[in-house]
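Quick illustration for those who missed Monday's session on complexes.
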Amino acid sequence: MSDRLAIGIDRIKCDGHGVCADLVPEMIELDDWGYPIIRAGAIPPSVLPHARRAVSGCPTLALRLQRVAARR
Amino acid sequence: MSIALLAGPPGGQGMESLSSHQQRLGALPAVPPALIDSIERSNLRGKGGAGFPVAIKWRSVASQPGGAPVVLANGGEGEPLSRKDRMLMEQRPHLVIDGAMLAAGAVGADEIVLYVGADHVGAIQAMHRAMTERTASERARLRLVSAPVRYVSGEETAAVHFINDGIALPTSIPPRPFEHGIDGRPTLVQNVETLAAVALIARFGDDWYRSLGTGNASGTTLVTVGGAVPQTVLIEIPQGMALADAVNAAGGITSDCDAVLLGGYFGGWVESSTAWGLPLDADALRQLGYSLGCGVVAVLPAGRCGVVETARILAYLAHESARQCGPCTFGLRAISAAAGRVAALTPTPGDLEHIQRWAGVLAGRGACRHPDGAAGLVASALRVFAAEFQLHEHDRRCSVASLAVAAS
Ligand SMILES: Cc1cc2nc3c(=O)[nH]c(=O)nc-3n(C[C@H](O)[C@H](O)[C@H](O)COP(=O)(O)O)c2cc1C
Ligand code: SF4
Ligand code: SF4
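Prediction with flavin mononucleotide bound:
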């Protein structure tokens, strides 16, 4: 069984550049101050490539993919 | 009312000496082999605010790789409305130390850090004196650390960060302290009241502890009752006692009252009509959508406006943000500013709507749960003081202030 993945974020690293919301709008929108609001739960398989691009595109390396079950 | 943690000499006498403590309760028992199971049956929950089951945390720490664990006894008590941790440490430091020793034994820790808010001078003195009364080998395992006076200092990653690097700011998780804490070792962070309860459960058993509660609730809990009561007091109650009974035990209300702040700045407002009947039991309250938090019951006195009080608390919480995470830094600042304008009867269009929307997107969006607490408080205020918020925003009037004017 493949692991279900979600987007995790290091809130201290995130500088609110907003690149992520452009790269994976299916999972991330920005709040009034430009910081990401990430949809909870697993990333749909069709969106996974976008999510990977957002993770590698974040200029502060704040994003990661993590197993859904690992979230607490 | 003193039934377990505070049983023994009256609080006014100050710190209980080791000899009195041991005469009353017996010496520190050897760590019972099945202490964790007993703690689990006791249903003991963390008393620092989050109410996490203690036994689950101990098992996670005990089974971590990464060297001998450390126990961090959290006596930071940054919550402005709470007194329980500092008073417990002032009066029963040996109970806290016993509990920390037992926890250390159960999880295999060889070092204990007693982390006490620097402004709790009496507590620091009592803990220090209690340490000097202990045997040399016990003392060698104990370290007393004063915590910077700041709301977030008591957050568990901030406490670990301060002890490691002298910086009392939260760090990103993972790793959590139970995985990677003091000196990189697995660290059990436990509130001092939680540990004091352990000291009694290990001596008298989980059946005894459970039986102290009311109904299904287990054990006792320390409650700071303040606001419209004769004076702010610490009481120990059977868990599950009705809120009204706790307020009466604190001397009863001194004025009419429309609302109670339950759980402190991280808790929420409750209409008094509902509040009086609520059971002060962490589990039951959670199921009802409330929070016991760190055991604060603050009765809003007649003549005080809930909107104004909420704005004041939000200003404090915004100021106390560690300003490391955008949503917490900017979100709390914006909510606080808008609430401040509404409270001062100088709202700008959309303030109330903004407060509502912003509060809805804050939870879970910081490295620590600071913004979650603020968001919960705002949501409860908007519910309980809905009419008053409307009056402030639309009519630029405060019914309480106008009453005060009418009365003068
Ligand atoms: C902003 C913030 C401040 C906190 N301050 C305290 C504190 O002063 N004392 C405390 O025991 N827990 C505090 N906590 C909770 C701790 O992070 C931790 O959950 C607790 O010490 C664990 O002990 P317990 O399970 O026995 O409650 C705080 C949490 C947050 C988010
Ligand atoms: S791209 Fe990275 S730094 Fe920018 S908002 Fe997204 S997570 Fe934050
Ligand atoms: S959520 Fe707020 S208080 Fe917590 S670490 Fe981030 S900025 Fe600091």
